[in-house]
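A.,

Following up on our hallway conversation. Structure tokens first:
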């Protein structure tokens, strides 16, 4: 950031579109430290806001974040320090205040960016400082209660350290041309990208809302015009008027005898005037029931229908209370309100009998009716037709009260009696009415459970008449539970007779078995039936059901079929699939709850019955709606469905409610929805979010991962799920342009226990792979070849070192990104799940593995479900496109700091992953989506590097000879090598702990530019004085390790800043492959003084990768020959020995057989072991390699470094190597001799000349060596000194001489004597590193360092006190060597006078500064 100083005078900000004094945020874009990456890509988009009273920065010189304290002093503010406890890190760590953490909050990073924006978004008192604001926010949001402050402070410290280190690295890298500068065009591009992201997110809200509204409107059934209350009133008035005035006159002759009491429900009706003319009278009792109906003496002629009708016509009309005349016929009608006593549905007091009765009266009619205006009551209604008369006669004859339906009143040709609880006599009355009619369009008797064959058969017979049959379009007998075989037989006869029937509903009507086939045949042969509902009618899984389905689906007009709630087995479902495919007219099919129940626990070979039907759908091209609810569909069935409907373009709606799909099944459905070439636009999955997942967490999982389908598959082809999985693999092969032989390897096919050759299937004319349906198939699907073809060749090839680019390209190619037409339906379904947290969680987990989504998609999902916001970011951020920039911008989604910290804690492994330098140790919980994403990325990088190895012809240096770069892999505590030959064969599980080491094969060129020594020293100083724990420092170094390269001396210096072997090993592994001069690796290898540290590094990095190619001298190894890379290591040692001086180069060798016995190897190490194939594959081989300088075969060492270590050795000569020897390699007496020489000579050549003499021959014999030591008066090996082994002086000197003469010639040449020179350099460098640490920590005066070391002020330090004091000040290098140098008196104590010897080991710049200071002082002295 280019910051300036604030203005000197404060001013109040102007009002800009808000209330007075409103503070306006300032957008700050940081330059990226990565070459070619724009600012927004580095995530440095934040809002910075100052307090109202503070000086407002100028646009050209904004406030610098690093100068916060200076800014506070200039403005006169008092900083409030809020101190919170931190984890102790030793004596140098104490309390770190929040203000100290925020003093450089402008640095780049997720947490720092969020901390800039949070105070800016909190509007409180204007006098409140940023620190106060932030602390209040953290306290309010309970970050400390969540245990997140330690994590938050650590994250801030890491980001500040990273920013501090990257400033120097970026500056120097730009100077030397490694990084390019960020152009203004790139900044503009990413600024537009941010604006486009916000705009797209807003548009997404509108589009999803509109889509949901449109879909609901399309799904809503359009109801016909309902009858208004006025029209119904007029219709009812007319009906009851006719009922009273006519029907009872016709049946007057059939009245009961005198004195009988009859209710309105059983008595015919007659008007008062007609009854009076006939000599009749009635009396009202209390209420509305007829008490008596007495007739006078009438002759039979007077009781005839004609006489009754004539009397009724001649009767005078009585005006009603409404002003009309009372009467019948076609004239004025008696008002229904004025004759309430005659209403059969009223009870005592004039109130309705029940709410249900009133609802039935006011039920909207589907047809006809009077005009909805009260004026319609004045219009004359048409006279009663013959059918109505017949109905009234039938009601009177059968003793039933008439039911004023629109059909009965003559206002509709549709008999709507749904849920009327009709009985047989009522239906028979209606059937009698139909007998007099010629047009009936619709009969709806749904949910009339009291009807039996007695009434239904009579009705259906009337409907069978030719005149009615030609007009009847819909027949609904659903839920007529008492309908029997006679009813079904009548329906069959009616269907056989033909007609215009278009819809037939027999749902929940038990159909006897003997009538099922005739009924289906009649339906199939019917020429006009389009919609048939046979749900829950008793179809079972037997052979006759197949015949029924064949006959049923033979109809050419049938487009909607519901056969749900029947019982089908796999064979019936398979037959159904074939029939559905052959019927090209079928559009909608419902088979809900049809799968036969099978005891899964007792049936090990359970195959879901529905799966056989779903396989057949791959050939269907007509269905638009499919209902598979409640069929126990699990994730296996869902994969079959995905495979079958992969190319279906017409299916719009899929109903899967109440199936145990779970996460894996939901993932298949979402993949199916997201395909652009499918027609699916909506699916219903209510009750599908809990399902089986037993195979998802095991070692032998048989699952399909669209992102990484590679692995070992063991398929039983009689299972539909395994056949679908095989077809998905062939589709993936075709998508990536591979041939069958390239994609499928290690194929083994067994049929009936006999191994037969596997023939790759072919596609049928519509593109479906025809796989066999029997046998067991084992195969390995290889994605490595797909990677090679798609990403390593052609115009789209990716650079070998661009690991991040490969992952981005691979995910873009292999993962699903919802198509333009499918984004809205996908997120509309998410919106519908709002409030159902369990379902939303499954939905997110299904999206998180095989999908790529954009940042606007993530923001929409967060904004549309606030309760799941933090989980949404946690689960879906790994699959958001855009890399680091998207992750930074996603930080703006969080409404609270607590949510931000909660998410960051769970995404730590993902945030710390450095794909450009993936070498390291990983411990991942696969149930965490972020950890799963890390594991998936590393498995893909493993395949990428395996393809690179094949491309460049590299040798296999893997742990087990499988070409994998993943070592020591363990899943759930069990080694994967016990079940798989390679991790590439393993399919990544959904849950469980996955632990492994990753070692890359990328090696730097010798021509790359490394960091300067001055910058590296600055980096070490920053590391030493930062407020981070050692673990946090390692995390920072890992995150920036891909930005620079090191030399061996840099690695050596850095190792000394970490105390424990684990920390040293971790930082060493991070930068091991970033070292340019690997031929000088001995310089830093010697810093691992404990051999167990070397063994641990070999175990993690690989024995072949960690092989000392250029300087194997004094290397002690113990190799397990059962492992591939350790056999290779043994072979390289033997090869090298045979090329240099065999067998004298191998010392202390031995071989332990697999049974534990020792092989003495009397003839030495077999020369044949130089051939890798000749080495035994069991046992343990150990040896130590020694070689005299004159016998080195440098050319062979370069060759094995090039072929097995993949190092760049072009142009490398022996003089470029800094030959080195560690202080732990030689015997103790050799070090004692070296200490003696260092204290008396300036270089190692001087004592050689003293021993050999001025006129010497350049070689020292043992006699000359002994005499030379005596001449020097060296007393270190005298007998009085003794030794731990009790050896004499002669023995000790002889051991030293033998060490200096590794070739065994009996003399030490000058080249062999230079071994001491290598030790001298190590000794000198160790001391200089210690002095450099002291000057860096305590300043240039060593007296200050001495006072810190001698904390008790005794003036002397013993060796034990020295070792502890050095550790206390933070130095973890070879301090014992320094003590040995300083203890010149050999008394086991050092004083300050001895300590002052370190002055000459100060860094050269300090010595030059001191010399200049002395010369200037002497010049000023007169």
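Then the amino acids I'd put at each of the 1422 positions:
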């Amino acid at each position: 950031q280019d910051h300036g100083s604030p203005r000197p005078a404060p001013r109040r900000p102007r009002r800009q579109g808000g209330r007075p004094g409103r503070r306006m945020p300032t957008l700050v874009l940081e330059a990226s430290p990565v070459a070619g990456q724009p600012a927004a890509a580095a995530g440095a988009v934040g809002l910075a806001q100052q307090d109202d009273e503070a000086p407002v920065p100028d646009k050209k010189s904004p406030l610098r974040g690093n100068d916060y304290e200076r800014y506070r002093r200039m403005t006169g503010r008092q900083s409030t320090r809020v101190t919170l406890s931190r984890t102790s890190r030793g004596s140098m760590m104490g309390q770190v205040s929040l203000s100290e953490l925020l003093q450089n909050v402008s640095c780049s990073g997720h947490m720092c960016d969020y901390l800039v924006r949070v105070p800016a978004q909190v509007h409180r008192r204007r006098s409140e400082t940023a620190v106060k604001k932030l602390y209040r926010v953290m306290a309010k949001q309970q970050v400390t209660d969540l245990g997140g402050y330690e994590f938050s402070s650590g994250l801030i410290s890491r980001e500040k350290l990273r920013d501090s280190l990257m400033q120097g690295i970026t500056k120097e890298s730009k100077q030397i041309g490694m990084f390019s500068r960020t152009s203004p065009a790139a900044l503009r591009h990413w600024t537009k990208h941010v604006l486009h992201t916000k705009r797209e997110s807003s548009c997404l809200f509108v589009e999803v809302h509109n889509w949901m509204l449109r879909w609901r409107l399309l799904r809503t059934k359009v109801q016909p015009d309902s009858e208004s209350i006025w029209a119904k009133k007029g219709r009812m008035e007319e009906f009851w008027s006719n009922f009273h005035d006519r029907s009872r006159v016709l049946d007057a002759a059939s009245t009961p005898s005198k004195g009988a009491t009859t209710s309105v429900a059983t008595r015919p009706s007659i008007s008062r005037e007609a009854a009076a003319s006939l000599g009749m009278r009635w009396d009202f009792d209390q209420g509305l029931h007829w008490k008596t109906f007495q007739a006078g003496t009438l002759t039979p002629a007077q009781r005839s229908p004609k006489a009754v009708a004539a009397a009724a016509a001649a009767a005078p009309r009585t005006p009603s209370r409404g002003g009309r005349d009372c009467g019948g016929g076609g004239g004025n009608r008696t008002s229904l309100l004025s004759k309430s006593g005659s209403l059969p549905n009223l009870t005592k007091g004039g109130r309705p009998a029940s709410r249900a009765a009133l609802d039935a009266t006011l039920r909207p009619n589907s047809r006809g009716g009077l005009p909805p205006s009260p004026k319609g009551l004045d219009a004359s209604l048409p006279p009663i037709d013959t059918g109505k008369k017949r109905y009234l006669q039938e009601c009177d004859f059968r003793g039933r009260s008439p039911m004023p339906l629109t059909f009965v009143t003559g206002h509709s040709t549709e008999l709507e009696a749904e849920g009327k609880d009709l009985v047989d006599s009522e239906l028979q009355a209606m059937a009698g009415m139909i007998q007099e009619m010629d047009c009936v369009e619709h009969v709806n008797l749904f949910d009339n459970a009291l009807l039996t064959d007695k009434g239904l058969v009579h009705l259906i017979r009337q409907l069978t008449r030719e005149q009615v049959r030609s007009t009847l379009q819909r027949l609904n007998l659903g839920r007529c539970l008492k309908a029997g075989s006679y009813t079904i037989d009548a329906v069959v006869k009616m269907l056989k007779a033909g007609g215009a029937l278009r819809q037939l509903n027999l749902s929940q009507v038990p159909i006897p078995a003997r009538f099922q086939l005739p009924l289906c045949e009649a339906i199939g042969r019917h020429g006009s039936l389009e919609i048939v509902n046979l749900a829950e009618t008793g179809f079972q899984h037997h052979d006759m059901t197949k015949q029924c389905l064949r006959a049923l689906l033979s109809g050419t007009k049938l487009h909607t079929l519901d056969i749900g709630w029947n019982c089908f087995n796999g064979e019936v479902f398979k037959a159904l699939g074939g029939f559905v495919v052959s019927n090209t007219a079928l559009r909608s099919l419902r088979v809900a709850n049809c799968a036969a129940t099978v005891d899964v626990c007792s049936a090990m070979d359970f195959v879901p019955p529905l799966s056989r039907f779903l396989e057949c759908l791959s050939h269907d091209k007509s269905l638009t709606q499919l209902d598979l609810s409640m069929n126990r569909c699990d994730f296996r069935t869902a994969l079959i469905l995905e495979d079958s409907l992969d190319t279906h373009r017409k299916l719009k709606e899929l109903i899967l409610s109440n199936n145990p799909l779970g996460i894996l099944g939901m993932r298949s459905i979402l993949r199916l929805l997201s395909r652009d070439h499918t027609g699916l636009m909506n699916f219903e999955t209510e009750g599908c979010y809990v399902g089986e997942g037993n195979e998802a967490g095991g070692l032998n999982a048989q699952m399909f991962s669209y992102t990484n389908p590679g692995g070992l598959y063991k398929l039983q082809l009689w299972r539909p799920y395994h056949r679908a999985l095989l077809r998905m693999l062939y589709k993936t092969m075709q998508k990536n342009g591979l041939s069958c032989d390239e994609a499928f390897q290690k194929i083994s096919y067994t049929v009936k226990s006999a191994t037969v050759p596997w023939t790759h299937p072919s596609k049928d004319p519509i593109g479906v792979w025809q796989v066999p349906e029997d046998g067991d198939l084992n195969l390995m699907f290889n994605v490595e070849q797909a990677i090679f073809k798609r990403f390593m060749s052609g115009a789209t090839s990716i650079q070998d070192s661009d690991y991040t680019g490969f992952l981005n390209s691979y995910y873009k190619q292999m993962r699903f990104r919802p198509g333009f037409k499918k984004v809205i339906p996908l997120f509309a379904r998410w919106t519908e799940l709002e409030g159902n947290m369990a379902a939303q969680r499954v939905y997110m987990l299904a999206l998180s593995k095989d999908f790529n989504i954009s940042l606007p998609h993530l923001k929409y999902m967060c904004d549309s479900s606030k309760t799941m916001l933090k989980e949404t970011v946690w689960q879906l951020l790994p699959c958001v496109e855009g890399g680091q920039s998207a992750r930074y911008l996603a930080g703006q989604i969080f409404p609270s700091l607590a949510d931000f910290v909660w998410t960051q804690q769970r995404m730590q492994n993902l945030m710390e992953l450095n794909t450009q330098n993936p070498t390291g140790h990983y411990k991942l919980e696969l149930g965490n989506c972020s950890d799963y994403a890390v594991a998936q990325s590393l498995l893909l990088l493993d395949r990428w590097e395996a393809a690179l190895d094949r491309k460049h012809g590299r040798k296999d240096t893997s742990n087990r000879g499988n070409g994998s770069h993943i070592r020591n892999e363990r899943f759930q505590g069990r080694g994967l090598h016990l079940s798989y030959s390679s991790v590439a064969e393993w399919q990544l599980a959904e849950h469980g702990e996955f632990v492994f080491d990753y070692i890359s094969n990328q090696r730097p060129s010798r021509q790359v530019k490394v960091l300067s020594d001055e910058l590296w020293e600055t980096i070490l100083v920053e590391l030493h004085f930062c407020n981070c724990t050692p673990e946090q420092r390692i995390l920072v170094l890992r995150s920036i390790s891909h930005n620079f390269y090191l030399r061996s001396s840099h690695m050596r210096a850095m190792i000394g800043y970490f105390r424990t072997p684990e920390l040293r090993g971790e930082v060493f592994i991070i930068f091991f492959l970033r070292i340019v001069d690997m031929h000088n690796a001995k310089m830093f290898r010697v810093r691992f003084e404990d051999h167990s540290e070397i063994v641990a590094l070999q175990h993690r990095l690989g024995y072949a990768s960690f092989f000392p190619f250029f300087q194997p001298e004094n290397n002690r190894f113990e190799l397990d020959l059962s492992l591939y890379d350790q056999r290779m290591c043994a072979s390289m040692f033997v090869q090298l020995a045979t090329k240099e001086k065999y067998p004298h180069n191998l010392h202390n060798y031995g071989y332990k057989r697999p049974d534990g016995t020792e092989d003495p190897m009397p003839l030495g190490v077999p020369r044949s072991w130089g051939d890798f194939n000749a080495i035994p594959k069991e046992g343990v081989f150990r040896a130590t390699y020694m070689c005299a300088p004159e016998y080195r075969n440098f050319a062979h060492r370069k060759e094995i470094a090039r072929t097995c270590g993949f190092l760049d050795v072009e142009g490398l000569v022996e003089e470029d190597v800094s030959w080195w020897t560690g202080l732990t390699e030689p015997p103790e007496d050799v070090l004692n001799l070296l200490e003696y020489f260092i204290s008396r000579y300036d270089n190692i050549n001087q004592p050689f000349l003293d021993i050999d003499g001025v006129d010497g021959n350049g070689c020292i014999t043992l006699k000359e060596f002994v005499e030379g030591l005596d001449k020097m008066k060296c007393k270190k090996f005298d007998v009085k000194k003794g030794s731990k082994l009790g050896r004499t002086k002669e023995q000790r000197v002889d051991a030293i001489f033998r060490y200096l003469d590794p070739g065994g010639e009996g003399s030490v040449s000058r080249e062999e004597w230079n071994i001491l020179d290598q030790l001298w350099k190590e000794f000198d460098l160790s001391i200089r590193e210690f002095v450099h640490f002291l000057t860096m920590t305590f300043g240039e005066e060593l007296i200050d360092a001495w006072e810190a070391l001698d904390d008790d002020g005794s003036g002397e330090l013993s060796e034990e006190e020295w070792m502890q004091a050095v550790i206390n000040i933070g130095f973890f290098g070879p301090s014992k060597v320094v003590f040995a140098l300083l203890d010149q008196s050999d008394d086991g104590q050092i004083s300050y006078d001895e300590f002052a010897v370190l002055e000459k080991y100060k860094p050269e710049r300090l010595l030059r500064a001191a010399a200049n200071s002395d010369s200037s002082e002497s010049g000023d002295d007169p």
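Residues 261 and 292 are 5 Å apart (CA to CA). Curious whether your intuition agrees with the design.

B.
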